[in-house]
Amino acid sequence: MKKIGKLFGIITAFALIMCLIVGCDFPTNDNDTNGTGGNGGGGGSIDRKITIKNDTSIDLGYLWIKPSSSTSWGSAILSGWYYETITSGQSQQITLPQSLLEYINFDIQLSTSSGATSTSGSRFLRYNVPLSNGTTVSFTNSNLDNKSNLPQITIKNRSGVSLSNIQLKPSSATDWGISFGSVSNNSSQTITIPMPLTNFSVFDIQMTSTDSIGSGTYSKSNVSISNGMTIIIYSTDRNTSNLYPVIIIQNDTSINLGYLWIKPSSSTSWGSAILSGWYYETISTGDSYAIRLSDTLSTNSVYDFQLSTNSGATSTTGSRFFRNNVTITDGFTITFTNSNLQ
C-alpha cells in the first residue's frame, strides 16, 4: 500500500508540473464581471461602473454623459430626484448605459438644471474624459462652465432653397447627433458646437431641403472649423444636380443695392424686377444673394444684369451697376464692383 501511495503521489506531482508547463485553468471562487478589458474600459466589459464625486459647494441633481465625438447629450442619467441628487462632498456610482460601452472618451455634465442645453442653473462640465470600469470623476468649483468657451459658427444659406435639419459631426465620427434647426434661403443661422475645438476641429456638415425643385441633401466634408467662422452653403453643395441653376449676386460696391433685373442678352426687355427693394431683399455692401433662375430664364445661358438703388429698370436716376453678356452655370457668382457703375 505504501508503494501504491508513493506511486500515486509521484503521478500527481508529475501532472501538476505538466499543467504548469501547458497553462491549465484551475477553478477559483472569483466572479468579476466588471473587468476593464479592451480599449481602456470599452470592448470587453459586461458593464462599466464609474463614480461621480461632487466636490463642488452645491448639491447637484442632473447628470449627462455623452461620447466626446457626439453633439447630443441624450437623456439625463440622473434626473434630479431626491435619491439621485449628489450632495456636496458626496459620491454616487453610475453604471454606463449599454449604448455608451463602445466609446472610451466622454463629456460629462453635472448641473442644477434639468435641461442639458439650457443656459440657466449651475453647470459643471468636464470634456474628453476616458472612462474605464472603476474610474472616479471629481467635479470641483473650477469645473463651473457657462459654455461661453464653446465655439460658434454661422451657417449662411446661399443655396437657393430653404434648408432644415442642420447637423454637424467631427469628420472622424459616425454619429450625426442633434439637429441645429433650419435656415431659409439668403438667411443665416448661428450655432454653438457643444465640444471644444481642442478635441475636434475638422467637421462634416449636412442639411436637407424639401423644396420641390432643389430637394435633397446639401453637405460639406472635412471643414476646418475656427471660432466665429462663417460657412456658406451653395447650390453646388447639393448631392445631386439642380434642375434650375442658382446664381449668386455679390455686392462688392460701396453702397447697398435693392433692385435687380436679369434678362437674356438677346432680349431688349428687362422685364420685372427680381429684387424689389424690400429690406430683406436689399443686398448690403459686401454681402451676397442667391437667386434660382425661373423656367423661362433657364432656357438661356448668357445674360445681362442690372443692380440699382432705383425701382425703374429704364430710369436714369439712382446708382446703376451693369454686367452684360455673362455666361452663367449653376452656382456661378456675378460680382458687382464700383467699376460697373454706369
What does this structure look like?
The strands form six sheets. A four-stranded antiparallel sheet has the order 3-2-5-6, with no helix packed on it. A four-stranded antiparallel sheet has the order 16-15-18-19, with no helix packed on it. The protein has a three-stranded mixed sheet with strand order 4-1-7, with no helix packed on it. It is elongated, with a radius of gyration of 32 Å. By secondary structure, it is mainly β. 28% of the residues are buried. Mean pLDDT is 87; it is low at 1-8 and 15-44. The chain has one helix spanning 2-22; strands at 49-55, 62-67, 78-79, 91-95, 105-111, 123-130, 136-140, 152-158, 164-170, 188-192, 202-209, 216-224, 230-234, 246-252, 259-264, 275-276, 288-292, 302-308, 320-327, 333-337. The protein contains one helix and 20 strands.
Labels describing this entry:
1 helix, four-stranded antiparallel beta sheet, 35% strand
Oligomer type: single chain
In percent terms, what proportion of residues is strand? 35-45%
List how many beta strands DSSP finds: 20
Rg to the nearest angstrom? 32 Å
Uncertain regions spanning at least 5 consecutive residues: 1-8, 15-44
Give the count of helical stretches: 1
- What summary fits the major beta sheet? 4 strands, antiparallel
Structural class by helix and strand composition: mainly beta
For the record, give the distance between the C-alpha atoms at the N and C termini, rounded to a whole number: 124 Å
> What's the pLDDT, averaged over the residues?
87
Strand order of the largest sheet: 3-2-5-6
Helix content: under 10%
Rough outline: elongated
